[in-house]
Amino acid sequence: MIRGVIFLRTTDRIVTMKIKVPVGISAIKTMVVEPSVTAQHIGSGFVPVLATPMLIALMEAAALEAVQDHLPPGWTTVGTKVEVEHMKVTPLGDVVTAEAVLIRQDGRSLAFSVQAKDSSGIIGQGHHQRFIIDKERFLSRL
Length: 142
Known about the structure:
- The chain is an alpha+beta fold.
- The chain has one domain: Thiol Ester Dehydrase, Chain A (Roll), CATH 3.10.129.
- The protein is built from three helices and seven strands, in the order E-E-E-H-H-E-E-E-E-H.
- Strands 3-5-6-7-4 form a five-stranded antiparallel sheet. Strands 1-2 form a two-stranded antiparallel sheet.
- The chain is globular.
């Protein structure tokens, strides 16, 4: 593999192309803390507050949304690493907003800064990595 070059398969040949995603792009995802996203409900704790895994899922969804429109048809990204600090509790009924900003691209590897807020301010922050994949090829290997 040549660094930063992606080989696209067509029916009769292999085409090389570079997928360049603009550093600095971002997306925001929002959710209301309902019983289904609490630690108590999903089993990561015994209290009815926003579960850390759900906070991370919201951050990942923001990162996915930020880059998806910059990828060729049939391509997407998968999460490969998450480093997040969940700093504050968010109670039922509050709204959580997560933002992901692309800070670096190295070939097919994408690095994001992620942050989440609720009505009290910042509740979580960290970094997330995703990897660009050809969805059909990826699924064929499962």
